[in-house]
Write a structure and sequence with these properties.
117 residues; mainly alpha; elongated; single chain
């Protein structure tokens, strides 16, 4: 009986890693946003809507393209690091670091609205 219980416990004791795979279109859009962010002198108190409008026609406006759960989860979990690495030369103090974190949060909120609708 103890052996059966131990075997059962062993079957549930494993580490699982989920790897989110965003679509190429989504990553390309994030890269366009990053390139636009790089053109600003500072990221502090940045209006993310202004940044998105500045990206203009570069962003995907294809009505057949929908933000997937993989896209959203990848950005929510790994997007902060993706932004920080890409904007590394802009982040030279704690205030700029906080600004990038804030940009990530605002973009995550916007993407979440798209998922819910």
């Amino acid at each position: 009986m103890d052996i059966e219980i131990n075997n059962l416990i062993d079957t549930f004791n494993y580490n699982t890693t989920i790897i989110w795979k965003p679509k190429h279109q989504f990553v390309k859009d994030i890269d366009y946003i990053i390139e636009e962010l790089k053109s600003y002198n500072t990221l502090i108190n940045l209006d993310i809507y202004e940044v998105l409008v500045s990206c203009g026609h570069k962003l995907t406006w294809d009505q057949e393209y929908n933000l997937s759960n993989d896209d959203f989860n990848w950005f929510k979990i790994q997007g902060k690091n993706y932004l920080l690495i890409a904007l590394n030369n802009k982040v030279d103090d704690l205030y700029e670091y906080s600004a990038v974190i804030n940009i990530h949060l605002k973009l995550t909120e916007l993407f979440e609205l798209q998922i819910e609708n």
